[in-house]
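Course assignment 3, question 2. Fill in each field.
Student: A.L.
Task: Predict the tertiary structure for the chain below.
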Amino acid sequence: MLAVALINVITHVILNYLILSLGYLGIDTTFAFIAILEVLVMIAEWQMLMYVFHGPKGRFLILAALANAASFFIGVLLFWM
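Answer field:
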């Protein structure tokens, strides 16, 4: 669980830094753009999970998808509501 949490924290720190940097530069970060970035993060996390654990691809894809969906919707609730 620690490795899963660390992978998620690392990728989301990078994602949030990117979003903040783009906002600082005046680049509009729309809902769709952030959703696309979340999908890219999910793919990166999936690849890292497969590298670390050498397990079944499908299970790690589901884990990465669920973790990022939860993160995305929590972010929507916190920042757009």
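Instructor remarks: Residues 30 and 75 are 13 Å apart (CA to CA). The chain is about 85% helix and 0% strand.
Grade: pending
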